[in-house]
Amino acid sequence: MEDLILRIGNFLYFAGGMLGTSLFLANCSTNSSRPLMDEVSDRGKLIIGTDAGYEPFTFIEDGQIVGYDPDILALVVNELGVQLEMQELPFEGLLPALMSQKVDLVAAGFKITPERAQKFAFTLPVAVDGTALMKRKGDERIETLEDLSGKVVGVLIDSNSATAIAEFDAELKASGQDGIGQIKEFKSNAEEYLALSNGQIDAVTAGQINLAEVISKRPDEYELLGSIGERNFVGWMVRPENKAFRDVLNQALQKLFESGDLARLQEKWFGFTMDLPTTGYLPAGAH
């Protein structure tokens, strides 16, 4: 009898535990499936993660985060009826912050690539950009891209430029050259520009628009070496489960396309306008 009572007690204990676990998971599922737009509306603000060291897309001026992306976002949140909160984070910390729900979306010059589009949901493109290399002004050791063989090149961790320079290195080696001597990673663009100035590296690779802006402000210090890889569309990213919210953002961006406001901001920050698609911009297998 005592053995029977013990078995019944164990059954009830584990059954209760399973029920509690089921209720907990159901509650988590309900909370996680709540539309992000509802959460944004309730809190009254849209939280953006950005790396404010990528002029003219996003940078610090007079203690404020300014640039092309912040200007577009200001118009978008006005359309959504909420406030804008921008959180400056290290570039390599942006995607972890997005996935851990510390920010609602990231806007930091991310190019729309097949690999990223399979992990995150991209908005409509807000720009198109390529990858370029910059050297110290007057460095006669490096006249062409092929002269990077045996040299040290700086790159931002986990960036499109990192992929592009690795592919270019492989091309150099395939052509019978030694390839790049070292690809040195940095946590910010500012760090790699400083390393270039100090002679710690021989060249840096970054977005073409960004490097053009840097050179325009410091023409006696830097010069453009050339471009590598392909040009890609640039967009903002949300979590893959928030595609409905991505659609809300796209509706707001579509209005900026149609009103000419996006072209006006491109002229303001880049000095030219861009031909951007509103359909068919996502690679196969994208969210």
- The counted number of beta strands is 13
Radius of gyration: 24 Å
Mean pLDDT: 90
Please state the oligomeric state of the protein chains shown. Answer: single chain
What characteristics describe this protein?
single chain; 287 residues; alpha/beta; D-Maltodextrin-Binding Protein, domain 2; 5-stranded mixed β-sheet; 3-stranded parallel β-sheet; 10 helices; 43% helix; 23% strand; disordered N terminus
Concise structural overview:
The chain has 10 helices and 13 strands. It has helices at residues 2-32, 36-43, 68-80, 94-99, 114-117, 160-174, 189-197, 208-217, 243-259, 261-270; strands spanning 45-50, 53-54, 58-61, 64-66, 83-88, 105-106, 121-122, 127-136, 152-156, 182-186, 203-207, 222-234, 237-238. The model is unreliable at 1-32 (pLDDT under 50).
